[in-house]
Write a structure and sequence with these properties.
With 510 residues, the chain is α/β, with parallel strands linked by helices. It contains 18 helices and 18 strands. 48% of the residues lie in helices and 16% in strands. It starts with a strand and ends in a 37-residue tail after the last helix.
């Protein structure tokens, strides 16, 4: 079975913040999970480097667009993947030849099929969004922009663009898109995003301007090199150009269709324009578009322009990479908006990781060492707990199928929480004082080791380093990622525990 997952490609007009990281870690967690299932998995991320916004930003910094994008990609965006411990299989840049070749082939195909025409156009354009705006996308400005209409996202006035451009016949796909939403309700998730987009399409679609002739930082329209392709139209094609569209048919057939993890604010591009483009080109429709919520800081969407952008390394340097990944994959309901605060992160780190998982692991290993000389009792787990390990493994895997990452993490931590309670109830330190209760002590500790191993396997896609450290601590051989995650409760318990340094040391904040 194959699983192809993508992040959006990110604008390189600035450095990444935790809003970007949230998306990337989610896609990476899904990819890691499917690899542990044994699926033929591929994860793609990358950067979007064309368009007017990039051109203007480069000019403002007195460098060429190429110099600007090269510097940010190599110094900020690629290193960010290391900061987050992301195991992506590919990284695409829209300035690469493989993307240009694929885009021009795709565009020519649409042109030859009669889905592109030349016409005149006038609309309001937000350079920050690189998007044409309808009246419903604009709000009344405040402060220096009072009395003007501004972009609801960037709070800046739009620009009136009047050009003779090439258009894509998006309006012809209204009925087919509605049929897609109705016959494949899982295609757009969550339901709130699907309902919003279905309503948008049902109101009628306008043809889409897909080229610009007032600047040249972009991919040339293949039959008219006085035009470059509209940045959003071109960017969407990265999901197929990266896997060989028009160049490597075998690779393309192996990977496509893909699952797109995007912010809800760009779901319209991915679940309206993109599937229409696929229909026009005669290729299979994407597997799924998941529009997750926003990260909010101080009640506002994460944004560099509004000074709410926090760089991932500001967090990872204090709490560590795995705590970063755990927090954002567990504290926020994937699909809904979520608020970030340092106080909440600190609280969850100490309560759930240090005192919850970390303390449990150290106590269990210490007791196996103390009462059994490090040898793990080779007896079955207590029935009720064994059933819990099985049911939570099933729940975690079912949650991943629905892209409900937070529920999968919750399933793993329900095992951790239950084991902490189980130790309190069974008081193994008391059982150890009575030789007649030796068998019961063995069952209790064997149950705890079994549960810890199950939790380690289920948490490996979220906290790779900590899960491996825990795995080795309970005596696990090789890599925890070698285990089949859909059978996490059935792992083979080893003969002995090993040493385990603190998984999540306490952090004293200044």
């Amino acid at each position: 079975m194959g699983f192809y997952v993508t992040t959006p490609i990110f604008y390189v007009n600035d450095v990444p913040h935790i809003g970007h990281a949230y998306n990337i870690v989610a896609a990476d967690t899904l990819a890691r999970w499917h690899r542990m299932r044994g699926d033929d998995t591929w994860m793609l991320t990358g950067t979007d480097e064309h368009g007017q916004k990039i051109l203007r930003t480069a000019m403002a910094n007195s460098v060429s667009p190429t110099e600007w994008t090269d510097k940010l990609v190599e110094n900020a965006w690629k290193p960010n993947l290391e900061v987050l411990n992301v195991a992506n299989d590919d990284f695409i840049r829209t300035t690469e030849d493989r993307h240009r070749v694929g885009v021009q082939k795709f565009l020519q195909r649409l042109y030859d099929a009669g889905f592109i025409y030349h016409g005149e156009f006038e609309a309001e354009y937000c350079v920050g969004c690189e998007e044409y705006k309808t009246p419903g996308d604009l709000v009344d400005g405040v402060g220096e922009y009072e009395g003007q209409s501004v972009c609801a996202i960037h709070s800046r006035p739009t620009e009136t663009v009047k050009e003779a451009n090439y258009f894509f016949k998006l309006s012809e796909f209204q009925d087919r898109l509605l049929e897609l939403y109705d016959t494949r309700p899982d295609y757009v998730q969550p339901a709130s995003v699907r309902n919003e987009l279905r309503s948008f399409v049902a109101q009628g679609l306008n043809d889409l301007s897909i080229s610009r002739s007032t600047f040249d930082w972009g991919i040339k329209v293949p039959w008219d090199d006085s035009h470059v392709v509209y940045v959003w139209f071109e960017a969407l094609m990265n999901y197929i150009t990266a896997i060989g569209y028009g160049v490597d048919d075998e690779q393309f057939e192996r990977r496509w269709p893909g699952n797109h993890i995007v912010g809800k604010d760009i779901a319209r591009f991915h679940a309206v324009i993109w599937p229409a483009m696929q229909m026009a080109a005669g290729i299979e429709i994407s597997e799924r578009v998941y529009g997750h919520g926003w990260l909010l800081v101080g009640g506002e969407k994460m944004s560099k322009s509004k000074a709410t952008g926090i760089e991932p390394k500001q967090i990872t340097e204090v709490f560590g990479i795995d705590a970063f990944r755990y927090y954002f994959m567990s504290a926020i309901h994937f699909g809904s908006d979520g608020s970030f605060s340092w106080e909440d992160l600190d609280s969850r780190y100490h309560a759930e990781l240090a005192n919850g998982l970390g303390n449990l692991a150290s106590r269990v290993i210490a007791m196996v060492n103390k009462y059994f000389g490090g040898e793990i009792p080779q007896v079955p787990s207590e029935d009720a707990l064994a059933e819990l390990f099985r049911s939570e493994t099933d729940r975690a895997n079912s949650s991943i199928d629905e892209f409900q990452i937070h529920d999968a993490v919750d399933a793993a931590f329900s095992i951790v929480d239950r084991l902490n309670g189980y130790i309190t109830e069974t008081t193994p330190w008391q059982l150890a004082k009575d030789e007649s209760k030796r068998d019961r002590l063995a069952e209790v500790l064997a149950t705890n080791v079994r549960g810890l191993g199950t939790a380690a396997i289920l948490l490996a896609p979220v906290m790779p380093e900590s899960a491996q450290k825990l795995w080795r601590g309970i005596g696990g051989a090789d890599e925890v990622t070698d285990q089949r995650i859909q059978n996490a409760h059935e792992w083979e318990v080893p003969a002995r525990v090993d040493e385990l340094s603190p998984l999540f040391p306490r952090i004293e904040q200044n």
